[in-house]
Amino acid sequence: MDIQVAERVDTMVNVTVQRWGNSEGIRIPKELREQAGIHAGSMLNAEYVDGTIVLHPISVRTTQIGTYRVPRLEDLFADYNGTYQGEEWQTAPSVGGEA
């Protein structure tokens, strides 16, 4: 199994799939992370192409909320073309002290 962190391979190392709880994962060595510009919390797109697992960094702008960095809603819904009516609140039963 080959692991690539970019379109062209500048560096390739062997890694071991390890069990973490009920999941399995790999650790990406520092040299590869630095070359790809990724760090803990970076989002990656993973795909299986011709017998190879390919990881592509996803560029997501974030905003600070308290101590957390989260994706911006504008970016999460950038490709959404539908409409949202938001009428559930008009037909939902009262659950507390609503006026």
Automatic annotation (TrEMBL):
Organism superkingdom: Bacteria
Q: Name one GO molecular function term.
A: toxin sequestering activity
Xref: SMART domains:
SpoVT_AbrB
Domain called SpoVT-AbrB: residue spans:
18-63
List the Pfam families: MazE_antitoxin
Q: Which PANTHER family match?
A: ANTITOXIN CHPS-RELATED
Q: What is the protein name for this chain?
A: Transcriptional regulator/antitoxin, MazE
What is the organism field in this record?
A: Bifidobacterium pullorum subsp. gallinarum
